[in-house]
Amino acid sequence: MKSIRFLSFITSLMAVSIAWAEPAKEELDACCQAEVESAPFTQLSLYQLDTSYTSDAGKTVRLGDFRGQPVVLTMFFASCGYACPLLVSDVTKIKESLPAEIRDDVALVLVSFDVERDTPEALHQYKTERGLDDHWTLLHGNDDAVSELAALLGVKYKRENNGMYSHSNLITILNSEGEIAHQRAGLKGGLEETARAIVGVVNQE
Amino acid sequence: MSPHLRRRAPLWSLIGVIVLALTQGGIARGNTDGMTFIPAGVYAPLFTGPEDPDEIPVPSFFIDTQPVTNGDFLAFVQANPKWRRSQVSPIFADESYLKHWAGDLELGPLAPANSPIVHVSWFTARAYARWLGKRLPTTAEWERTAAVGYDGPDGKNDAVLNGDIYRWFASPTKATIPSATNARPNYLGVKGLFGYIWEWVSDFSTSMVTGESRGDSGLERDLFCSAGSVGAKETNDYAAFMRMALRSSLKANNNTSSLGFRCARDSEL
Question: DSSP code of B70?
Fold first, then answer.
């Protein structure tokens, strides 16, 4: 009897140990898989990050999925009442000021700081309310994904006690390889320059 | 061999397998060797808005007892070629990454194996932590760990500890950083939080955005000399201001001669 009890103890120990070991293996795979897949990207490409986001359409998206076209990348959050609407309208202005032949080749990407409230559904609603067309992709990521991207872009942000975010206002242009080609900081001016940077990116290719 | 013992042999080998499985699992996931348990506590931010609480609760966690060493980091780059000096992407680590090492996989005289690693970026420190199934501590966790004295929970009024900190601030960075193994542990049992290196935290990029700073965050230069302590609550906590000023001046791919890190993990494994 005693040995049976001991054996069942051992079996449960095994189950525990397997439960411990399993997720660890997955984590390792995820880490090393990322290394393999990032190999073809250039040294300065943000697409080396293999982090996945969920889009406003509910799809799993990696930044590398935008490879091959210029990207206007902006971090924001949907419930922001001041700077973010300005940033979004600035991106719209930048797009409209582009020559017609390249206007539709540019991806407009918004990544939210607000990992809690800006779910893919909330982002979808925001997109609809703002009348943003299919050239826009709004992305939801976890804390890690947001802090990593912010670090790469040089965006500083902080969640305030009232649930709002303080953040740098930065619009980043990525070339077709995902390298930073231009950044527009602040909320005043610089739109023409940013549009020129996109034209420059397209002409380079 | 007695029949009794022979009958037991399969059981013992089973136990051996289980012990092996447990330790293997432990290494990959639940290992807290070399870490110190930090009980739940509070962190008092240096800057708070009018509606913010003065203290933020910090749940319990584990933190490395000492900073990560050159030897530790060597094992990491050996196992992960992508993070070697010659191969790392410049967006993750600038040109001074591991520049005190003699080579890609060679420490050399300026980087003793037991000394804290420096010349690492936020991205590389984070990759190291992930490799071990750990993470970087948050600012709140790090400051909560460092807020105690040598012999009591109140570090701000520990004259001996503060004397040691200021002496360190006043002395230039040594060409070779000594090992923190023999450092005097603080009240929580953690070593080398000052006196050797500065350390990365996971949320370093939140340091300088305060209250209603809605323009571009270009406050860095103004605050690097700790001018930020003017108007804040705890003006005597100079050390914490210095750390905050340093964090706010960093970019995630920077590597400096006095900046290293230690890892943390949640206390619920």
Answer: H
Judging contacts by C-beta atoms under 8 Å, the chain B residues touching residue A171 are none
CA-based nearest residue in chain B for residue A16: B22
Q: State the pTM of this model.
A: 0.76
**Cα(A83)–Cα(B216) distance, integer angstroms:** 11
Short-list B30, B57, B33, CA closest to B43: B57
ipTM of the predicted structure?
Answer: 0.71
The owner of tokens 């420190």 is: B125
| Phi, psi torsion values for A54, nearest 5 degrees | -115, 130
Contact B215 A35 (CB under 8 A): no
Q: How far apart are CA B82 and CA B84, in angstroms?
A: 6
Task: State the DSSP H helix or E strand holding residue A20, giving kind and residue range, or none if neither.
Answer: helix A2-38
Tell me the chain B residues in contact with residue A155 when contact means C-beta distances shorter than 8 Å. 205
* Per-block mean pLDDT, blocks of 10 residues, chain B (269 long): 46 51 44 92 77 84 98 98 95 93 96 96 95 94 94 89 87 85 95 92 69 36 30 58 76 86 89
Does A162 reach chain B within 8 Å, measured CB to CB?
Answer: yes
What angle do helix axes A2-38 and B122-131 make, rounded to 10 degrees?
Answer: 150
